[in-house]
Amino acid sequence: MDRDAFIRTLAEEGFPEPVLVTREAGVMTEHSHPFEAKALIVAGEIAISVAGEERLYRAGDVFHLGAHVPHVERYGPQGVQYLAGRKG
């Protein structure tokens, strides 16, 4: 998905303006967020594990996590940069 289409989709789904997030290579141990998140990968890659199932996302991919969902984030060797919409 391209950036403009992603931003339009977020608005249609009631998300506020997205924020740009940059993470260095590494791992964020299991945690959850008090908000729903939908993000477009802009550069690099991120693997997200939920309930023991890991999925890899690269530039152009979109991931969606519900609020309060425990997960682990693993950032690729070049880190990751993504546009994140958060609501709730």
Automatic annotation (TrEMBL):
<dbReference type="InterPro" id="IPR014710">
    <property type="entry name" value="RmlC-like_jellyroll"/>
</dbReference>
<dbReference type="InterPro" id="IPR013096">
    <property type="entry name" value="Cupin_2"/>
</dbReference>
<protein>
    <recommendedName>
        <fullName>Cupin type-2 domain-containing protein</fullName>
    </recommendedName>
</protein>
<dbReference type="Pfam" id="PF07883">
    <property type="entry name" value="Cupin_2"/>
</dbReference>
<dbReference type="InterPro" id="IPR011051">
    <property type="entry name" value="RmlC_Cupin_sf"/>
</dbReference>
<feature type="domain" description="Cupin type-2">
    <location>
        <begin position="27"/>
        <end position="71"/>
    </location>
</feature>
